[in-house]
Amino acid sequence: MKCGMPGCPDFFDPPSRHGEETSAAAATAIRPDARTIRASALAAICAAPRGLTGSEVVAIVGRDPWVVRPRLTELKIAGEIVKTASTRKGPRGAWEYVWIRPL
Fold it and tell me: Which of these, 3, 6, 39, 53, is most buried using a 10 Å CB contact count?
């Protein structure tokens, strides 16, 4: 088991932040849910044979983008997911990279 899955050590405790007071407050607020959100995002990506864009992960997890997208960054840092060269259009028409679980 790796860090995105339940029962594993939380390498992002507290969740990522950028040194700003507001970022620290946000990290504290999301802390109780961050592990679960990471696990949900990872499970969604693993279940998608063609991978998922960030917007697709957000839609599946069912949380706000500003809550889910930092968890994708944490999963990337942990080596749990990788960004591919593939892109798909997101809901706002912008091209987004596709994330997959590395082989």
Answer: 53
